[in-house]
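Example record

One chain of 153 residues, shown exactly as stored in the release files.
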Amino acid sequence: MSPVRARLAELGLVLPPVSPPGGVYVPAVRSGALVHVAGQVPMLAGRVVTTGRVGAEVTHAEAAELSRRCALAALAAMDAVAGLDSLARVVRVAGYVASAPGFDGQLEVVSAAGDLFVALLGAAGRGVCTAVGVPELPLQAPVEIEVTLALSN
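Predicted structure tokens for this chain:
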């Protein structure tokens, strides 16, 4: 068992099935030593887990948990194209938070995804980060996370 898979098991985490694309794109693309993962929204059994804007219908804490769910979905998409065993580091995390007027905690919401990557990879889980507040996201999802990951081989 790879170190990343072992750490997932230690944390009691399971990768979800890869969500099928909702448009003309693929969930992840390998390009050389990088995997670019399309934006992931929090899905369960083909449906968005929770809908609404953070700071209104969705609490800050709920949004952070949804961000972690998106990070797991990104790892599942990466696993499908390159194999989780080849994951070396997180390069970039970009997060989009459907935000109610006045909500300014986007960085903390997106950082929850980063916290999951650090729990799995240690220092290699720290990448650059972009956190953006938006009025709406596809499927009325509160959070969308996209990542770029570096491979060891």
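Notes: The beta strands are 28-31, 34-40, 43-44, 47-48, 87-98, 128-134, 143-151.
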